Structures are given as structure tokens and as C-alpha cells.
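Researcher: Good morning. I'm working through a list of sequences from a screen, and I'd like to move beyond sequence-only analysis. For each chain I'm collecting a predicted structure so we can compare shapes side by side. This is the next one on the list. No need for commentary yet; just the structure.
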Amino acid sequence: MSVFHLKEDGDPEGTPRAVKCLVSASQTRRGVIWTTAALLELWSGHFVDVAVPFVLSGFALAVCLFELAFFFPV
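Model: Good morning. C-alpha cells for this chain:
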């Protein structure tokens, strides 16, 4: 996990081998890393705090636009 953090001078934190290993990972391994990170985010409480308000506001916008479309007579 320390590979993803940068020091204040901009150099990656961790061993150079670990950084090289992550950068040169195959497409399959990168896919596994991204999928794992996405699943962990979905199971965390932060997803609920961020995604639910966006989804609810999207539904509210859709309802408002639907109602507005029928407000003006043609």
C-alpha cells in the first residue's frame, strides 16, 4: 500500500522494486487491483456518503425535468 503514497519531495514511498513491480504489472493484474479497490470502496461507508446523494439528486432532477416537460402547453 505504501507504493501509492508519495513523499513530500515527490519520490515514491517504498522500495524501488515494489514501485517497478506495480508499474510493470500485466493488464490482468491491474484489472484485479482495480476490481479489488472498487469492491473495497463499495463495501466501505464512504461509498454511501458519496454515491447515495448523487443518485438521489439525479432522480430528483429527472422528476423535475419530467414535470417541467408537461408544464407548458403545446
